[in-house]
Amino acid sequence: MNRFTWPEKPSLKAFQIAKPGIPYIIVACVSTLFLAGIHFHTLALIAFFITLFVCYFFRDPDRVVEEGEGFLSSPADGKVIFADVVDENPYVEGKCFKISIFMNVFNVHVNRVPFDGTIKAIHYHPGKFFNASLDKASEHNERNALVIETESGVTFATVQIAGLVARRIICGVNEGDKVVQGRRYGMICFGSRLDLYLPTDFDCRVAIGEKVQAGTTVMGVLQ
C-alpha cells in the first residue's frame, strides 16, 4: 500500500493563490472595475474573464509526497518531453540522465524540491525566450539552476527555464539552505520548462508524453 506525507502544513483555504500572483490579480481586478465603472461593458466582461484566468494560473494547491526509499518527486506540473542520457551539461560534471518537463499556461507553475538535500550552488543565466518545448531552450533561454547534494553525497540539478511567454523566474532559496522533498521553492510565470540532471544510473519511471504533478508524481529512484 502506497504511503503519502504532507511536506508542508496544508492550507485551510479552499482555493490557494501563490503570493507572486497577487499583484497580477490586483491589477486585473482594478482594471475590470474601472472599465465597468465607465460603462465599457464589453471590455469589462473581457477583463473579468482575464481576471478569472489569472487567478486560475496562480493557483497553488497543496500536494502530498509518496514515501519510498530513493523516490524522487517531480519538481513541476506538466508533460515529460525528454528523458535520456546526455553527454554533458553546465551544472553537474560528466554524463547525466536528463528529464525535461514542459509547462503550458494551464499547468500549476509552482515548483517543488525533488529530493532532500543541501543547495550547493545556484546558477542564474539571462537569456532569450524561445518556446520552452524546444530543445534549444535548455541552452539559450533565461534559466535558474539549483545544484543539490543529498545526504548520501549524490549531486543533481533542477533548472527553471523561462518560455516564450514567461518573463519572470522566482526562486525562494539560497546557497547552503537545506531543502525538503516536495516543499515549494519557486515558480515561473506564464508558460515554461523545467530540466532535471540526474546520475546516469537513475532508475527513471516516467516516459516521454506522460503528464506529471509537482511533489506527487514519482519520477524514479536515486540509486
From TrEMBL:
Enzyme Commission number, as recorded = 4.1.1.65
Report the superkingdom from the record: Bacteria
Cofactor(s) this protein cannot do without: pyruvate
Post-translation changes: Is synthesized initially as an inactive proenzyme. Formation of the active enzyme involves a self-maturation process in which the active site pyruvoyl group is generated from an internal serine residue via an autocatalytic post-translational modification. Two non-identical subunits are generated from the proenzyme in this reaction, and the pyruvate is formed at the N-terminus of the alpha chain, which is derived from the carboxyl end of the proenzyme.
Q: How is the cofactor bound?
A: Binds 1 pyruvoyl group covalently per subunit.
Q: Which family does it belong to?
A: Belongs to the phosphatidylserine decarboxylase family. PSD-A subfamily.
Summarize the protein's role: Catalyzes the formation of phosphatidylethanolamine (PtdEtn) from phosphatidylserine (PtdSer).
Q: What is this protein called?
A: Phosphatidylserine decarboxylase proenzyme
Q: What is the scientific name of the source organism?
A: Desulfoluna limicola
Gene behind this chain? psd
